[in-house]
Amino acid sequence: MAYIRKVGIIGQGHVGAHVANSLLMQGLADELYLCDINEQKLTSEAQDFTDALSFYPRNCKIVACGAEYEKLADCDVIVNAAGDVSAAAKDRDGELFITSEIARTFIARVADAGFDGVWVSISNPCDVICTEIWRLSGCDPKRIVGSGTALDSGRLRNAISKRVGLDQHSINAYMLGEHGASQFAAMSCVSFGCKTLADLAAEQPERFGFDQAECEAEARHGGYVTYAGKQCTEYAVANAAVRLVQAVLGNEHYVTCCSTLLTGEHGEEGIFSSIPCVVGANGVEETFELPLDEREQAAFHASCEHIRGNIAQLGSWWNDEARV
Q: What contacts 174, CB < 8 A, 6 or more positions away?
């Protein structure tokens, strides 16, 4: 009997709906379980996807679950796309309290129902929400994969590509740390094939000696260029998440930068943050430490401290008697 690939998506807003569409367009799921507290929105999305089945490469069972999160227990992967993008108009920290409150309505329920698959979390602030999923579910943290700077790293490769005229797929470049304003580019580790950026800059300064700080800023703020005209980001982040889902379903051992629980990498531990990870059927299989220079190492510590600061805010907020 053929194995049935089951994927759940919590939240059918801008990003969640595009995650579903991308999964269907690529034929990655055999059964798709959609959750959203807005019943009419969910019904409409499920109908739209069902109407489009004749045009997708594979058939798929589409199940509208509403807020019955327990129905996701048998999924291989659950994508957390629940949130309120309008709260992130200034920065991703703006969603801190609302996405955490939303997450607390379903994480324990999914865990108690017996879910033992992989979480792929998009909701912002991504690293904090991943930490919350870990604490509230009690699951193996390696089975929690945050989209983190997977998208930001793509933006960095795009920015470099425009400057050097090489295909972005041929560029190895990562944004590390928080999926937010404190992220940074590991420029000392950028390479093209087996040639480092530093080597190429010495050989062809007019081509590879570009302004690295400008390039990093372009990658860091790219999402807000998108947000300015449409009040959301959707296609890029959805496809970054689907690429992670694909790596899990296919047990690919895919190397990418994403958010994982730090266990001593670069001297940090106890929080989720983005570093290069190997992603397969069980989530994050291993991590790679890059040979960061002094500036980059300091930037990584600063980014982790920012994440801890957000977690500290969340702790005091949930302990507030008024909230209880």
A: 149, 153, 156, 185, 186, 189, 257, 276, 290
Q: pLDDT band for position 93 (50/70/90)?
A: low
Q: Is the pLDDT of residue 289 over 50?
A: yes
3, with CB counted inside 10 A (0-12, 13-18, 19+), is: exposed
pTM as predicted: 0.93
Whether the predicted pLDDT of 321 surpasses 50: no
Task: Locate 311 and state its tokens.
Answer: 């977690």
What's 148's DSSP letter? Answer: T
pLDDT at 263: 97
H or E stretch covering 270: strand 269-280
Q: Is the dihedral of CA 18, 4, 70, 252 positive or negative?
A: negative
Q: Do 263 and 269 contact (CB within 8 A), yes or no?
A: yes
| Residue 169 is among the residues annotated as catalytic for this protein | no
What does the block give as tokens for 86? 């309008």
What residues are paired with 282 via a beta bridge? Answer: none
pLDDT tens profile 102-141 = 999 999 999 999 999 999 999 999 999 999 999 999 999 9
Phi then psi for residue 235, to 5 deg, are -65, -50
Report how far apart, in Å, the C-alpha atoms of 29 and of each of 59, 209, 216, 228, 314 are.
9, 44, 35, 33, 35
- Give 282's Cβ-side CA count (13 Å radius): 6
Catalytic residue chosen out of the listed positions 14, 18, 179, 266: 179
Kindly indicate the confidence band of residue 323, based on its pLDDT and cuts at 50, 70 and 90.
very low
CB 32 within 8 A of CB 61: yes
Q: 114 vs 22, 43, 137, 240, CA distance in Å?
A: 27, 26, 10, 27
Q: Which among 130, 124, 128 is positioned nearest to 89, based on CA atoms? A: 124
pLDDT at 1: 63
Residue listed under structure tokens 């047990």? 251
Selection from 115, 25, 124 nearest residue 78 by Cα: 115
